[in-house]
Amino acid sequence: MRTYLSFETAVADIDARLDELRAVAEKGDSPALAEEIARLEARADKALADLYANLTPWQKTQVARVQGRPRFGDYVKGLITEFTPLAGDRYFGEDEAIVGGLGRFEGESVCVLGQEKGDDTASRVQHNFGMARPEGYRKAVRLMELADRFGLPVISLIDTAGAFPGVEAEERGQAEAIARSTDACLALGAPNIAVIIGEGGSGGALAIAACNIVLMLEHAIYTVASPEAAASILWRDSSRAQEAATGMKITAQDLVRFGIIDGVIPEPLGGGHRDPPAAVAATGHAISDGLKSLHGLSPDELRNARAEKFLAIGRRI
Fold first, then answer.
1. How many CB atoms lie within 10 A of CB 239?
2. Dist CA 303 CA 44 (whole Å)
3. Do 134 and 103 touch, CB atoms closer than 8 A?
4. Alpha carbon separation from 152 to 34, 109, 274 (Å, rounded)
């Protein structure tokens, strides 16, 4: 069943009319009906293209969160072969918001990390809606150090509203765990590449996104705080999230202009949720190109380039 966002009413109306005509067409052959269906299909595609070419930051936020958008597990299934998940931080326990392991990308051994939000109620609860606790970031550090030891490229797939804000996370050192994970990213002697596939929220995202190359899907968002959290902080009114999103410059198009990310990956017409395999394939091509551009660099060159990249942020804004 198709899902429509609140701003997609016009497209939903055309699609509903198309469904009616297709149901009638199945009962008999009618050239006039086939012509009308073709005309409406073209109209629906144009309406969708026009709509998605001019999305507001808040609308992009809705697309980044929409049900059916490819999640971490979809990218692993589509891009990584022989994936072997590795669990536990060797200090406290397993955190299922961050999933990581070893596998092969285009035949090359890699380490893959990312937040998994889940697709239904049970899996969302299991993965804590993609919001990691300290043990998740300590697991990420463990896997990055393992990758560094064997010279394996690290691929980070980011999709989180932020780190888990619960009391137990703070008791176990959430801020310190995020800081050490960020440091582990920056210290890697192997190439690393991050892709914001949905939401990239705050330090919860940055902890595994301090990479040589940072990419974003066309309708993803990357922000210091969610629009709702920013509105609560600025105006003590989370209902002003739309206003906050507009002012925060959270879209891929704004962030590539400011030099905060390195590239934008085009999504299928109407967003990745309308054609998940195409979104996954486009992301795979971008990751492949990124890793090839880093091939042959020494560990010191990778560290220096990464450091310079992040130190340069803000110099030209």
1. 10
2. 48
3. no
4. 54, 6, 33
Q: Where are the beta strands (DSSP E) in the chain?
A: 80-85, 98-105, 108-115, 154-160, 192-201, 213-217, 221-223, 263-265
What pLDDT does 200 receive? Answer: 93
pTM of the model: 0.91
The alpha carbon torsion through 38, 39, 41, 45 (nearest 10 deg) reads 140
Task: Please count the other Cβ atoms lying within 10 Å of the Cβ belonging to residue 51.
Answer: 16
Cα–Cα distance, 154 to 174 (Å, whole number): 23
Structure token digits, residue 268: 């299928």
Each residue of 224-273: pLDDT tens digit?
998 999 999 999 998 899 999 999 999 999 999 999 999 999 999 999 99
Length of the chain: 317
- What digits encode the pLDDT tens for the residues 3-36? 789 898 888 888 888 888 888 777 766 777 788 8
Residue tagged 């200090």 (tokens): 91
- Residue 86 has phi, psi (to 5 degrees) of -120, 135
The predicted pLDDT at position 181 comes to: 96
3-state secondary structure of 48: helix
At 139 the three-state DSSP class reads helix
